[in-house]
From TrEMBL:
It comes from the Bacteria. The chain crosses the membrane at residues 41-68, 80-102, 139-162, 168-186, 198-219, 234-259, 271-297, 309-328, 340-357, 363-385. This is Membrane protein involved in the export of O-antigen and teichoic acid. Keywords: Membrane, Transmembrane, Transmembrane helix.
Length: 404
């Protein structure tokens, strides 16, 4: 078993794989900012945000499979995985044509991004099996394969000077080629599959929780595309690179912690929150000290003047990093509707930007930070209440046993 208290070989491998995945996700808009026009960059960022939102079905499937296996061991998950893939494909078919019209997106590029997303969703099953079994070395390889498929093809296309559509076509091909490799990594010859099959409801709960986290964390980018001029929304897209960096940089902690959280290990939760919070604080401080450099690295010298706003974007991502950890803890603990408060926060953010907040880069960025802080407060309160309730229940059970 891998232990969170130290950095062993398995933990280091997952860390490297997580860094690789985050780096590739970071490189896509960075290269796009240098190779594409501001308008195409905004299209790319919008497609990445939209497919990331739908692609949380993959994360939900992975989390549900991992939690189930950590509790009961190897068990059937094929039916739930297939239904998850079909549901994600159905959502894309229904939503993307509307997005093409409303958000003024090119149809072919949008369709290719959707094809990549379906492949990423399918990968969640095998990643979850490896994570739930705490087979972190194969998991690290799997994460690297998925990241290479999801982002590597797009990076290669953009770096070679290909158009946005051609780059997305290469990306769709590399995602599909990654799936057989994942299947081989997850195989454990001789393992007996038994126990109750994974329930579709568990996938729905985990997926809805992850979806709520990403919707609220990406809502500002989509709102900027809708309400800001194209050049300003392109600049805002560069700022959200810092947000995504602060959000995803510490997520390897959550990956390692999840199987233990499913087994009710509170020490793991405390340590995980400490590590994620420390990472966020470091990144916000770095953004405050070198904001110009951060924007220059994210989008090029043309965006250097926006450096004074870097701490706002980094702080937003840091808050959501903690929210993601807390949401995973609730899912692992069996909470039925952990995502409900985040949907409320999302609705309030959309309403505020639509009706109240001035349509400027700075105002939208501050509104996004306010939403992130609100989401963190709400999820912290819910987790605290749940922990206290479980302590009270155990004390009551102990008292009853003593009387008997």
């Amino acid at each position: 078993m891998a232990k969170l208290s130290g950095i062993g070989t398995a933990g280091l491998a997952v860390t490297v794989a997580g860094v690789l995945a985050n780096a590739l996700a970071y490189v896509v808009p960075v290269i796009g900012a240098r190779r594409l026009t501001a308008a195409d960059l905004s299209v790319l960022a919008t497609l990445l945000a939209m497919t990331a939102i739908v692609g949380v079905a993959s994360t939900g499937l992975q989390i549900a499979v991992a939690v189930h296996r950590a509790r009961v061991g190897p068990s059937p998950a094929g039916r739930s995985a297939l239904l998850t893939v079909l549901a994600a494909a159905g959502v894309l078919v229904a939503v993307l044509p509307v997005a093409v019209v409303v958000l003024r997106l090119p149809a072919m590029a949008t369709a290719l991004a959707a094809a990549s997303t379906v492949g990423v969703v399918a990968a969640g099953r095998w990643l979850g099996e490896m994570q739930g079994d705490e087979r972190f070395l194969p998991l690290a390889a799997g994460l690297a394969v998925v990241a290479g498929g999801r982002y590597g093809g797009v990076v290669l296309g953009l770096a070679a000077g290909a158009s946005l559509t051609t780059s997305l076509l290469i990306g769709a091909a590399t995602v599909l080629l990654a799936l057989p490799v994942l299947h081989l990594l997850a195989r454990r010859p001789g393992t007996r599959v038994s126990g109750d099959p994974l329930a579709v409801r568990a996938v729905f709960t985990a997926g809805a929780a992850t979806l709520a986290t990403l919707v609220v964390s990406y809502a500002d980018l989509l709102l900027s595309r809708r309400f800001l001029p194209p050049d300003v929304s392109g600049a805002y897209a560069v700022g959200t690179v810092l947000t995504k960096g602060a959000l995803w940089a510490p997520q390897v902690v959550t990956v390692l912690a999840l199987p233990r959280l499913a087994q009710g290990d509170r020490r793991t939760l405390r340590l995980g929150l400490l590590l994620v919070g420390a990472c966020g604080a470091f990144l916000v401080t770095a953004a405050a000290l070198a904001g110009g450099l951060a924007f220059r690295l994210a989008g090029g010298a043309a965006y250097d003047g926006l450096g004074r706003y870097a701490p706002i974007f980094a702080a937003t991502g840091a808050c959501y990093g903690l929210v993601f950890m807390l949401i995973n803890a609730q899912v692992a603990a069996g909470a039925r509707w952990p995502s409900a408060p985040l949907w409320v926060v999302t609705a309030l953010l959309v309403a505020a930007v639509w009706l109240i907040v001035p349509h400027t880069l700075v105002a939208v960025a501050w509104a996004a930070l306010g939403a992130a802080a609100a989401a963190l407060v709400v999820t912290s309160v819910l987790v605290t209440v749940r922990l206290r309730t479980s302590v009270t229940e155990r004390q009551s059970e102990g008292a009853i046993l003593s009387v008997e």
